[in-house]
Structure formats: structure tokens, C-alpha cells
Amino acid sequence: MIETNNIPVAEKLTSKNFAPDQDVKWCPGCGDYSILKQTQTIFPDLGVKKEDFVFISGIGCSSRFTYYMDTYGMHSIHGRATAIASGLKASRPELSVWVVTGDGDALSIGGNHFIHILRKNFDINILLFNNQIYGLTKGQYSPTSEIGKITKSTPFGSVEQPFNPAELALGARGTFVARTLDRDTKHMQGILKQAYYHKGTSFVEIYQNCPVFNDAAFFLFSDKETKKDNAVFVEHGKPLIFGANDDKGIMLDGYKPKVVKLNENGVSVNDLWIHDEKDRIKANMIAGFQDDPEEHLPRPFGVFYAVDHPTYEDNMKEQINRIMGKKGKPSLNKILSGTKTWEIDR
Amino acid sequence: METKEEIIEVESVVVKFSGDSGDGMQLTGMQFTDTAAFLGKDLSTFPEYPAEIRAPVGTVSGVSGFQVQFGSKEIFTAGDQYDVLVAMNAAALKVDLKNLKKGGIIITNTSGFDQKNLRLAEYPEGENPLDDDSLDNYTVYKMNVSGLTKDALAGMGLSNKEIERSKNMFVLGLLYWIFDQSPDFTIKFINEKFTGESVIAQANINALKAGWNYGDNTEIFNTRFKITASNLTPGTYRSITGNSAAAIALIAASEKSGLPLFLGSYPITPASDILHELSKYKECGVRTFQAEDEIAAICSAIGASYGGALSATTTSGPGMSLKAEALGLGLMLELPLVVINIQRGGPSTGLPTKTEQSDLLQAMFGRHGESPLPVIAAESPSDCFSAVYEAARIALEHMTPVIVLSDGYIANGSEPWRFPSEEDLKPIEVKFETEPNSENGVFLPYKRDEKLVRPRVIPGTKGLEHRIGGLEKQHETGDISYEAKNHELMVKMRAAKIEKIADYIPLQIVDTGKEKAKLLVLGWGSTYGTLKTAIGELLEEGADIAHIHIKYLNPFPKNLGDLLKNYEKVLIPEINNGQLIKIIRDKFLIPAVGFNKIQGLPFTTSEIKSKILELLKN
Hints:
Largest interface: A-B, 59 and 72 residues
Number of domains of chain B: 4
CATH class of the largest domain in chain B: Alpha Beta
Number of domains of chain A: 1
CATH superfamily of the largest domain in chain B: Pyruvate-ferredoxin oxidoreductase, PFOR, domain III
Largest sheet of chain A: 8 strands, mixed
Shape of chain B: globular
Strand order of the largest sheet of chain B: 11-10-12-13-15-14-21
CATH architecture of the largest domain in chain B: 3-Layer(aba) Sandwich
Strand order of the largest sheet of chain A: 4-3-5-6-8-7-13-9
Distance between the termini of chain A: 70 Å
Largest sheet of chain B: 7 strands, mixed
Strand content of chain B: 15-25%
CATH topology of chain A: Rossmann fold
Structural class of chain B: alpha/beta
CATH architecture of chain A: 3-Layer(aba) Sandwich
Radius of gyration of chain B: 27 Å
Helix content of chain A: 25-40%
Oligomer: heterodimer
CATH superfamily of chain A: Thiamin diphosphate (ThDP)-binding fold, Pyr/PP domains
Order of helices and strands of chain A: EEHEEHEHHEHEHEHEEEEHEHHE
CATH class of chain A: Alpha Beta
Number of helices of chain A: 10
């Protein structure tokens, strides 16, 4: 018997239990298929009763996800999934609530709800499928599209600088910030599990390929030939090592991260940056690796930041229980009459 | 002691407390009101305050007023004109003199009429209304309230600022003397409010008593009022504002339905008090969520409703606009939700602290797509309880968002309320489906019952996992469907479901007057008190009129159309540019006549009376 959230689970679920009764209708080759598969794969291991899972999504290709998981779910309106999930979790803390969103849904139209749910720290898991493009509306630039991006709405190139979602999540005081990618299935499974086990809002950015409108945006980080030199997979307590033969590392020179060759110029593993997921400042530095083009820092994946912090729903429940305990629950008649009444008699 | 003053016996009196925003006029008015209520008077209040928190001191824009009509007969409005005006400074007199009855009483604080105050109130240089003949038509009592309060509190070791803050209590004490009301209620209030600050409490009590004694001893007052014995319906009463009534209605509906209460709200004038009030009831398990914006407020409420709560969101016009998209979702999901709109002057930021009835058409039609929703209007402060309770009942029993329209006038206004007991309240039937509802163990989330209502299943229910969403649904299965005929069917189904609610609400009654008459006055919402008073007075004079007040605006009570046929003319007064009239003309094809006021103020009784008389003449 597995125990999680103190709920004993008798029956063993398999990934098939979560497969939907209807056809999945994403484009062939869409990165969403992998995310769906990994989610269905890890869910039986979480020890949650099937009926206690809830998916809330907004609008966009990613948000169709809800229809493809045989759990409870709501496919809501553009950008608002996080707000709807907040109310659901506040009133039903025992449910395992998952939000599926995209770069447009979460960071553009839903930007306000996104930063506030992170700050409030409901125990909800947010999966942001970042493909750096608007897919469902057929190819406009998104808030994560790079400067100069040619799209239907920017035929001469985008003039806006993009958001870095991990930086934004850290700035909004998120308590769990991670990144993974669609084509690294094992890594994704690990990150999804860690997101589930983190108590608080878990934010997972998933680099997701859109083969139709923004193909190969992240292949640099997943193709065999380029992956090792361009991506670093951070793990708590382990040094930042990457490179084709695990021969490169990252060191801190004061406040500046630097790429070093291992076993050259007297540099050993012991000199490297050891990842500490509790360190907020360093998590911000990791999230910002891509902003230092001269240094050619690899793109980071993994859990950048994870700290314990009381959840909104626990704080709310504690306050209600404390005041109920102190004052006692009044009768409805007492509430109707209030404290000051008077009689009119004849 | 010898008393020379004349005692006037009256059925009702209107008093206006007027001063600078910092003068404590709202508190003074509320205390005066609570005392009157406690002593068995019926009453109605009208607080009016500026939109700015601290408008420039002494200016006309900084004037804050509190009007109360109280008496022994049934009172439905705060009164057209006041018998007594308390003017704490020159600006207050300038703003509020126009509605003082000829021959009325003015009580002024002379220290508020110094050169600086006169200049700030924009009186011409060298002119002081207290010194010239401009107030000859009134009885004016001039006193240096600041100085008198200072004298009364001398030796208590208080700062000038603290003394100045007590001057409203001096005025209140004097008013209690004039109206023969006991100050005991307020003394108790002060002791409770300033627990642990005994010096401040004592200072306020001393100022209050000094005001009373000033009236009793100085002999400058030659008029006192005595309100004749009350003839209110016997029973137990409390004082209530519209917003407080709305808050406890939600708690009552939560108790009667057995569902936990969730409120998602974002602060907005004049609705915030519902959020404040409900936030106090933690001991009842109420979950209040101050969301990051209006959209999140309604969306969080939809989320909580999905989870099985009795869910509500509160707002005012601009916030209502922001919620419109999510209302469409709530309607499509067919989830219960109470949406309370405390209307204010619009559009845009408009007149945030003033009243208006201009969101009716928005409530009826202000969404994308074909999206009818039930709409209920509250007609008085205490009626906000029954309007909100009914909204909750309909939302839960008919699985739909329901819009409640209140407005600034009744939300902030208060009146005595012969409150119901738990047993008096209609039961609220809620059922959560836990078993498959069709053959072969299949669950159909959009299979409807005889009310056309779909089953409510909450997450956590074993074996009934399913998805809902904003895309069009296939009839019964709830699966996504783009099929042409199905869409038409579902649009008509959703409309029929709302229309069907008419079978579960009371029939329309004629409030006052005859079943058949020359003229019907048809109203909705907060105009109730004024219309009732005006029509009552004209009926006594023998006018051939009647009054119908609609609470259920969508769907209308089934007999409304038949009732309307019994009148030669129909007059529809509204605090907007004509909204109910459009719906009535459209629905019943009658040539109704509109009467509209769009000044951020309620109608006065005399305005209504003259309009009725004008129509009766033609």
C-alpha cells in the first residue's frame, strides 16, 4: 500500500487508467504528446486516488491536455486556469490540482494570475508548455518569442524582448521553479514527480516543440550532437558539469558564472559550482544563464529552486480553525440577530 | 428646573449631519440612527461621502453627509428635505442648505465659519452667512462647538487634536437632548469601542454629556421634538445595512444548503463592505479570498463552486464588466454562483460613491453569445438579505450563475429589520450525484432533469471522472460538439432552463393600490421606498393608481404580463436613462412611459408625486 497525502490507496492504477476515451487531436509530431505520455506514466506512482486528480487548463493547444486525461478536469478560459485552480484548492485542499498552460496563456493574458498564484503558494502544480509561439491561433509571436522573431503578426521581426519564465517565477516568489523538455522523457518524469511532491506551487517550464509554427526551437538542447555542449542538468548537491565528455563545468568568479574545462589549468570537480536548490540568489543566476551570450553558458534544466513555505490553503485552514476554536461556531439564529436587538411590542 | 422650550410632537423627522470628511459625521449619524432604532423608531438613512479619502479640508468637495429620517410610522426613505441641518463648517452649509425645509433648524459650529473656512467654501470675500440675513427663513443656532468641547474636556490632559476629534460627540449629545433621546446607547458604544483607552472613552462621554447639558441649561433652544409612539409591527428588530444583509444572507444560505461558503472578491466601492463583513466570520468556516483582480475573483469562485462550495463574488459596475467573460464560462459549465453587483454611477469610474441603477441591461445582456442569466434586484437595505438568499437558492437548485443587483443607496443605507429566524428561511435543496445516471454505468454530465438542470458532481467522486469546459457541449454527454443542430439545441436549452425558473419563484403582487387603475407605477430595486411613500400619499388623496415592484427581473414572474394589462398607463421611474422600460416594452409591447433621474441621487418623493399627477392629468 502506498501512502501519500495520508490517503491510503488500495487499488493499483496504471497509465492506461488515465488514457482518455476520445482521440487526441494535437498535430502529428507535437511535443505535447510526450508530455501527456510522461504524465500518464508517473501518475499511477503518486499514490493519489484517480478521482482526486483535477486538471484545470486555459485556452491554447496545451490547454486541450485536460480532455486527454481521464481525471476530473476543466478546460476553462484564456489565462484564468491559475485563478480557477486557486479557488478550487482553497475550498478542497485534499485534491491534487494540476494546471496546464502555455506561454501565451500563462504569461500574456494570464500574467497577473500567474504571478499571484506563485506568491500565494497554493499546493498546485503548474505545467507551462513553452513553445515560444501562439499555435492555436496559427502562428503569432508570444511573450517568450525571441527579439526579431518573424511570425504572422511580426512579418518584419518582433521588437519585444521576451520573458524568461523561470526568472519571472522566481521574481514572483515561487517556491518551486524547474525546467525540463519534451524530448527528454526520463528527465521530465523525474521533474514532474518532484513537482508533485513539493508542497506549494510547483512551476515547471517544459520546452515543447511546435512542429508547425516554430519547429526545432529547442533541438539544440535535445539533439544528440548538440545537447551535451549546450545543456546543463542541475541537481541539488551536485556540481554543474556538462560537455560532450562531461569535461566542462561552471565555476563562480565572484558573481560571474564562468565555463571552465575540467582537469585543465588545475581546475577540478571540487572547484565547481555545487547546485543548492535552497539558494534563491543562485537560482536566479542559473535562470539567467542565457543572458550572458559572451560566456556561452549552457541552457539549464532541472529544479532551480525549491524551498518549503506554508501554503495558502494551510494558512487559511489554520486561521479558520484557530478562530473557530476560540469563538466557537455561532448558531445561524445568532448570526441573523447580530449583537444588538430591540423589541417592539404592542 | 424651569423649561421654556416648546415641545413639538411629530410622526417623523429628517436630520442631516453635514461636515468635513474628518469631522466624524458618518459615525455621528450612525450613532444617532442606532439610538433611534433601539428606542423603537422606524427609520431610513442615506450616507453620502466624497470619493476621495481625504479631500482638501474645509472645501465643498470634502463635505461628508449623513441623512436620516426616523419616526413612529413606517419609514421608507431618508426623506426629501430635512427638518434639522447640522453644519459643522461653512462648506457643509453651502452644500446642504438647499434641501433644508423653509423654517427648518440649522445648528452650526461657528469655529467652522472663520475666514479660512469661508474662503475654502468659496463664499464671497467679507461675506458670512451666519452674520447676514441670508438665513432669515430658518432658525439658526450658533455655537462654538470646538470651544465648548475644549472647555468640557479641560484638565483631562488631552491634546488639541484629541479634543477636536470629540466635537462630534458634543453635537450628538445636543441632538439627543433636542429629540428627547437617551444618550445611554452611545455611552455604551463608546465604552465598548475604546476598551483599554479609558481617557479617550471618558473624553467622548464627557463631550456627549456636555452637549446634552448645553441644550438643557442654556435656554437658547426654544424647540424640542417628541416623536409620537411607534406603530411598527411588533417583533424583535436589529439595524442592518444592505451590504451587511447581503453578507449574512450568504452565510444563511450556506447553513441551509449545508455547503461551505467561498467568496472571491476584489475591493471596489461600494461593494467592499460585503468582503469586509464576511471576512469577520471565520468562526463559521467562511473562506474569503481577496483575489488579485476582478477576473480572478470570479474565476476563483467558479473553481470553488466546481469543488462543491456555495460560491459568490461581489463587485460594482466596472468590475462586472471584467467578470463578463467568466460569467459566460459559468453559464456554459452550468455551475452555481452568486454574483452581487452593487451598482454605482457609471460608465467607467463614473461616480464611485454615488448611486445609480444603470447596470440592469448589462446584467441582462452584457455577455458574449446567447447567455441569459437569472437577475434579482434588492429593494431596500434589509431586502438585500432576501434577494441574496433567493439568488443562492436559485443558483444551487438550478445550477446557474445568478446576478443580484443592489446599489450604493441601499448598500450603505440602513434600516431596522425584523429579522427572520433560521426556521423561517426556505430550505435549499442540494444534491451531489454519486452514481452513473444512464444505462451501462455511463455518466452523462449534461443529462437534464425536469427543471432542465444537469447533475452536480464534484471532483473526488469515484467513478464519475469527466471533463467540462467552455466549448459547446453535446446534449447529454457533454462531449465537445461543433455540430450545427446541436448548438442551436443547446442555446435554446440553456435559455429554457432559465425561463423554467419562473415556475419556482413567487407570483408578482401589487404592492400598493388597486388591481385595476388608471396608472401603474412599475419600479425595481432601490426606488422601492420612495415609490411606496409617494404612492401611499397619493392614494390617501384618492388617486387612481397602483404600485408594482419587480424583484425577479429574469425570468419575470409568470403573471406579470397579465397584471400590466389592468392599467391604462404604466410609468417606469428609474435611476438611469431608461433600462427596465426597454425590457418591458420589448416583452409586453405596452407603451410604458419612462421617468429618469441620473444625478447619482435617489428620487425624492415629491419628484415622483408630481410626475404621477402630471400623467393622471393627461
